[in-house]
Amino acid sequence: MSIVERALKRLQQSGQAAAAPKPVVAPAERKAAPAPAVPGPPRDVGARRPIGNPEKSVHIDFEKLRHAGLLPPEHQQREISHQYRILKRPILKHAFGDEAQSAQARSALPRSLMVTSALPGDGKTFTAINLALSLALEKDHSVILIDGDAPKPQLSQALGIGGEAGLLDLLTNSSQSVESVVMPTDVRGLHLLPIGRRSETATELLASARMRQVLDEIEQLDGAAIVLLDSPPILLTSEAQVLASLFGQVVMVVRAGGTPQHAVEDAIGIIGDGPRVGLVLNQALHDSAGGYYGYGYGDGFLDSIKSEKQ
Question: Residue 150: which domain range?
Fold first, then answer.
């Protein structure tokens, strides 16, 4: 059992973490399946105004996402949905609850959440999409999902919005309005911001002071929205390290049995003490035959990992 798995087990026993109640099949075993219905009933958004550019509304192609391995097999949809309901509760609490309002009264943006990993291949984009869909089901909240992975914009490509203006355009042109490039979708409560048009200086743009201004403007579109960014892996790009300092919360995806212990520790050290950090344990192996796909999440995770090192 790895250091990460041992830390998660202790958190589960202490009630600090929520783990997948049952194992499900690993991503490598997924096969394309018919698209499910749009998750959940339409939300009642009350008097809150619609956001985004209505002329750029996006159809979410569930079959395409499933075929790309970014959604679970249809027969496991209910199980995975349950896991993400557990995962999102502490995120919402820290973004909108009393604890978050006091703990995040710093320079970081409390309603902004960065999903990342130490290394590529750990499942961060899968986690970002499924977490965003789960957050979109909330009656009182919405989500703005941003592709911030300029080197590998898998999110934009999978959603069919790779050629649209987006984040990099906002960083390049300060006169362009955020709302003009935010794209509503046919999933109520879910909005998208693609990576935007390619730039030779994408690394510098994402690490610039302008990035903080853009995040602030995105947050102001909807005071009840979670701003969720799919970031590059922490250890691969310098901009990911800067981005982490701009967010009130960071979810780092760890592939059980795949992400080296030193990579997890290095990534945690780079993120530092600014944001609230939770780890998602991905592709955990269980005692039953075969490989499985499960999640665990905990805010006390970092203390457990540190104690292992002592």
Answer: 3-36+52-89+120-228
